[in-house]
Protein backbone atom coordinates (compact mmCIF):
# COMPACT_ATOMS: atom_id res chain seq x y z
CA UNK A 1 0.00 0.00 0.00
CA UNK A 2 3.02 2.25 -0.04
CA UNK A 3 2.93 2.99 3.71
CA UNK A 4 5.99 3.23 5.86
CA UNK A 5 6.17 1.13 9.02
CA UNK A 6 5.63 4.04 11.41
CA UNK A 7 2.01 4.94 10.46
CA UNK A 8 1.15 1.26 10.19
CA UNK A 9 2.60 0.57 13.66
CA UNK A 10 0.73 3.58 15.09
CA UNK A 11 -2.52 2.40 13.52
CA UNK A 12 -2.07 -1.10 14.96
CA UNK A 13 -1.27 0.32 18.41
CA UNK A 14 -4.43 2.40 18.28
CA UNK A 15 -6.50 -0.61 17.18
CA UNK A 16 -4.96 -2.61 20.03
CA UNK A 17 -5.72 0.19 22.52
CA UNK A 18 -9.34 0.28 21.34
CA UNK A 19 -9.64 -3.51 21.66
CA UNK A 20 -9.98 -4.43 17.98
CA UNK A 21 -6.70 -6.32 17.63
CA UNK A 22 -4.44 -8.28 19.90
CA UNK A 23 -0.67 -8.12 19.51
CA UNK A 24 1.12 -11.32 20.51
CA UNK A 25 4.89 -10.91 20.76
CA UNK A 26 6.81 -13.02 18.23
CA UNK A 27 3.52 -14.36 16.84
CA UNK A 28 1.80 -11.46 15.12
CA UNK A 29 -1.26 -9.27 15.28
CA UNK A 30 -4.71 -10.84 15.36
CA UNK A 31 -8.30 -9.64 15.38
CA UNK A 32 -9.32 -9.82 19.04
CA UNK A 33 -11.87 -12.35 20.22
CA UNK A 34 -15.32 -11.25 21.24
CA UNK A 35 -15.52 -11.65 24.99
CA UNK A 36 -19.00 -12.21 26.44
CA UNK A 37 -18.23 -10.15 29.52
CA UNK A 38 -16.97 -7.26 27.38
CA UNK A 39 -20.06 -7.45 25.19
CA UNK A 40 -22.27 -7.22 28.29
CA UNK A 41 -20.23 -4.30 29.59
CA UNK A 42 -20.42 -2.50 26.23
CA UNK A 43 -24.20 -2.88 26.23
CA UNK A 44 -24.36 -1.51 29.80
CA UNK A 45 -22.27 1.52 28.91
CA UNK A 46 -23.98 2.23 25.60
CA UNK A 47 -27.38 1.80 27.28
CA UNK A 48 -26.58 4.58 29.72
CA UNK A 49 -24.82 6.90 27.28
CA UNK A 50 -27.38 6.59 24.51
CA UNK A 51 -30.24 6.83 27.01
CA UNK A 52 -28.87 10.19 28.15
CA UNK A 53 -28.35 11.22 24.52
CA UNK A 54 -31.98 10.31 23.69
CA UNK A 55 -33.24 12.39 26.63
CA UNK A 56 -31.21 15.35 25.37
CA UNK A 57 -32.20 14.74 21.73
CA UNK A 58 -35.89 14.88 22.66
CA UNK A 59 -35.32 18.55 23.52
CA UNK A 60 -33.19 19.38 20.46
CA UNK A 61 -33.87 17.11 17.49
CA UNK A 62 -35.03 19.10 14.46
CA UNK A 63 -38.57 18.15 13.40
CA UNK A 64 -37.50 17.71 9.78
CA UNK A 65 -34.81 15.19 10.83
CA UNK A 66 -37.34 13.33 12.99
CA UNK A 67 -39.72 13.16 10.01
CA UNK A 68 -36.89 11.96 7.75
CA UNK A 69 -35.95 9.14 10.16
CA UNK A 70 -39.63 8.22 10.58
CA UNK A 71 -40.00 7.93 6.82
CA UNK A 72 -36.86 5.75 6.64
CA UNK A 73 -38.14 3.44 9.38
CA UNK A 74 -41.62 3.10 7.86
CA UNK A 75 -40.64 2.55 4.22
CA UNK A 76 -39.75 -1.13 4.67
CA UNK A 77 -42.57 -3.69 4.45
CA UNK A 78 -43.09 -5.84 7.53
CA UNK A 79 -45.06 -8.55 5.73
CA UNK A 80 -44.23 -10.82 2.85
CA UNK A 81 -40.66 -10.54 1.62
CA UNK A 82 -38.90 -8.66 4.42
CA UNK A 83 -35.42 -7.30 3.80
CA UNK A 84 -34.01 -7.73 7.31
CA UNK A 85 -30.68 -6.15 6.46
CA UNK A 86 -32.38 -3.00 5.13
CA UNK A 87 -34.69 -2.93 8.15
CA UNK A 88 -31.69 -3.19 10.47
CA UNK A 89 -29.88 -0.40 8.59
CA UNK A 90 -32.97 1.79 8.84
CA UNK A 91 -32.83 1.34 12.60
CA UNK A 92 -29.33 2.76 12.60
CA UNK A 93 -30.76 6.03 11.28
CA UNK A 94 -32.54 6.46 14.62
CA UNK A 95 -29.32 5.90 16.54
CA UNK A 96 -27.57 8.47 14.33
CA UNK A 97 -30.37 10.97 14.97
CA UNK A 98 -29.98 10.51 18.72
CA UNK A 99 -26.21 11.04 18.60
CA UNK A 100 -26.36 13.96 16.16
CA UNK A 101 -29.10 15.74 18.12
CA UNK A 102 -27.95 15.28 21.71
CA UNK A 103 -26.02 18.57 21.70
CA UNK A 104 -23.10 17.13 23.68
CA UNK A 105 -19.96 16.53 21.58
CA UNK A 106 -18.16 14.50 24.26
CA UNK A 107 -21.17 12.23 24.71
CA UNK A 108 -21.55 11.85 20.94
CA UNK A 109 -17.86 10.98 20.54
CA UNK A 110 -18.07 8.32 23.27
CA UNK A 111 -21.16 6.73 21.71
CA UNK A 112 -19.57 6.70 18.24
CA UNK A 113 -16.52 4.97 19.67
CA UNK A 114 -18.75 2.25 21.11
CA UNK A 115 -20.69 1.97 17.84
CA UNK A 116 -17.47 0.89 16.11
CA UNK A 117 -17.31 -2.09 18.48
CA UNK A 118 -20.98 -2.85 17.97
CA UNK A 119 -20.38 -3.18 14.23
CA UNK A 120 -18.23 -6.23 15.01
CA UNK A 121 -21.11 -8.22 16.41
CA UNK A 122 -24.19 -6.45 15.01
CA UNK A 123 -23.99 -8.54 11.85
CA UNK A 124 -24.78 -11.58 14.00
CA UNK A 125 -28.21 -10.07 14.62
CA UNK A 126 -29.10 -10.64 10.97
CA UNK A 127 -29.40 -14.32 11.91
CA UNK A 128 -32.25 -13.32 14.25
CA UNK A 129 -35.15 -11.97 12.17
CA UNK A 130 -37.47 -11.87 15.21
CA UNK A 131 -34.92 -9.66 17.01
CA UNK A 132 -34.79 -7.27 14.05
CA UNK A 133 -38.60 -7.00 13.98
CA UNK A 134 -38.72 -6.41 17.75
CA UNK A 135 -35.99 -3.77 17.48
CA UNK A 136 -37.90 -2.09 14.67
CA UNK A 137 -40.95 -1.68 16.91
CA UNK A 138 -38.74 -0.34 19.68
CA UNK A 139 -37.12 2.14 17.26
CA UNK A 140 -40.55 3.49 16.29
CA UNK A 141 -41.50 3.95 19.96
CA UNK A 142 -38.24 5.76 20.73
CA UNK A 143 -38.69 8.01 17.72
CA UNK A 144 -42.25 8.86 18.82
CA UNK A 145 -41.02 9.80 22.31
CA UNK A 146 -38.36 12.06 20.79
CA UNK A 147 -40.95 13.59 18.44
CA UNK A 148 -43.21 14.39 21.42
CA UNK A 149 -40.24 15.89 23.30
CA UNK A 150 -40.60 13.35 26.11
CA UNK A 151 -36.96 12.98 27.17
CA UNK A 152 -37.52 10.73 30.20
CA UNK A 153 -39.63 8.32 28.12
CA UNK A 154 -37.08 8.31 25.28
CA UNK A 155 -34.34 7.51 27.79
CA UNK A 156 -36.33 4.67 29.37
CA UNK A 157 -37.18 3.19 25.97
CA UNK A 158 -33.53 3.29 24.90
CA UNK A 159 -32.57 1.51 28.13
CA UNK A 160 -35.16 -1.19 27.46
CA UNK A 161 -34.03 -1.44 23.83
CA UNK A 162 -30.40 -2.09 24.77
CA UNK A 163 -31.36 -4.47 27.58
CA UNK A 164 -33.37 -6.57 25.12
CA UNK A 165 -30.78 -6.34 22.33
CA UNK A 166 -28.01 -7.40 24.69
CA UNK A 167 -29.98 -10.39 25.99
CA UNK A 168 -30.88 -11.50 22.46
CA UNK A 169 -27.32 -11.27 21.21
CA UNK A 170 -25.83 -13.11 24.17
CA UNK A 171 -28.44 -15.87 23.93
CA UNK A 172 -27.74 -16.16 20.22
CA UNK A 173 -23.98 -16.33 20.72
CA UNK A 174 -24.27 -18.98 23.41
CA UNK A 175 -26.77 -21.04 21.40
CA UNK A 176 -24.74 -20.58 18.19
CA UNK A 177 -21.50 -21.74 19.84
CA UNK A 178 -23.23 -24.83 21.27
CA UNK A 179 -24.97 -25.79 17.98
CA UNK A 180 -22.29 -25.31 15.39
CA UNK A 181 -18.87 -26.63 14.78
CA UNK A 182 -17.90 -24.02 12.17
CA UNK A 183 -17.66 -20.67 13.91
CA UNK A 184 -18.11 -17.34 12.17
CA UNK A 185 -16.94 -15.64 15.32
CA UNK A 186 -14.83 -16.90 18.18
CA UNK A 187 -16.34 -15.90 21.49
CA UNK A 188 -14.32 -16.04 24.68
CA UNK A 189 -16.28 -16.73 27.85
CA UNK A 190 -14.01 -14.67 30.09
CA UNK A 191 -10.53 -13.22 30.48
Structure, briefly:
The chain is mainly alpha-helical and 191 residues long. It has seven helices and four strands, in the order H-E-E-E-H-H-H-H-H-H-E.
Query: What proportion of the residues is helical, as a percent range?
Result: over 70%
What's the CATH H-level homologous superfamily of the largest domain?
GntR ligand-binding domain-like
Determine the structural class based on helices, strands and strand pairing. mainly alpha
Oligomer: single chain
Query: Could you spell the SSE succession in H and E letters?
Result: HEEEHHHHHHE
Integer tally of domains: 2
Report the strand count: 4
**CATH class label of the largest domain:** Mainly Alpha
Strand order of the largest sheet: 1-2
Low-confidence stretches: 179-185
Tell me the CATH architecture of the largest domain: Up-down Bundle
Cα distance spanning the termini:
35 Å
Shape: globular
Give an account of the 3D structure.
This protein has two domains: 1-32, Arc Repressor Mutant, subunit A (Orthogonal Bundle), CATH 1.10.10.10; 35-184, Four Helix Bundle (Hemerythrin (Met), subunit A) (Up-down Bundle), CATH 1.20.120.530. Residues 179-185 have low confidence and may be disordered. By secondary structure, the protein is mainly α. The longest helix has 29 residues, at 151-179. Helix 2 packs across helix 4 and helix 6 runs antiparallel to helix 7. The protein has seven helices and four strands, in the order H-E-E-E-H-H-H-H-H-H-E.
Amino acid sequence: MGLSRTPLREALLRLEKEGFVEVRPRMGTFVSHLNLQEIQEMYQVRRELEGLAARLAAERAPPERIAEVGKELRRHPLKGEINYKALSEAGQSLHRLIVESCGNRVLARMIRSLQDHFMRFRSLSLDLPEKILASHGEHLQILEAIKRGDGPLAERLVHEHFDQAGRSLLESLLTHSQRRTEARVTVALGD
